[in-house]
# Entry
Amino acid sequence: MEQKKDKIVLHTCCAICSGYPISYLQDMGYQVLSYFYNPNIYPEAEYLKRLEAERTLCSHLGCKIFEARYEPDEYYTAVKGLENEPEKGKRCDKCFELRLLKTAMFAKENGITNFTTSIVISPHKNFNKLSDIGKNIAEQYNLNYLAIDFKKKDGFLKTNKISRELGLYRQNYCGCKFAVR
# Structure
């Protein structure tokens, strides 16, 4: 097997969203490390279902997975005062900031200069807003945030196809207890 040129940390929110981004980045020549950090997911049973699906996907795609600790208190601290914000509002921005910040910190600690997120594949998420958050964090840590709109070229359809073929768990809400309501 040929040696990959660079490593990249891909923040993964769930297996449905990360299937196509992992394969896309691998096709670009990256050695992908899935970083599963999602303290926002509620309840813990839901978190565990998503984590197990990500493990299955990574095993299938030959991608290493790093499972960060499940620390919902970090999420609740980050979004304190924003509990009543609507979906796609300031609470979500804080959640994205927290998860991308932890991803950047993980990349830096492991000598990896590139990172990105699978969240942007969702048609419900704002690519430009997420990219701005990622780029700002990358600048703080002297890293490279790859702003790739995985939705393009039927990425969302492709990622759903991968998840269906593998029979991966499919959630019906973004993740936090505020989205459940």
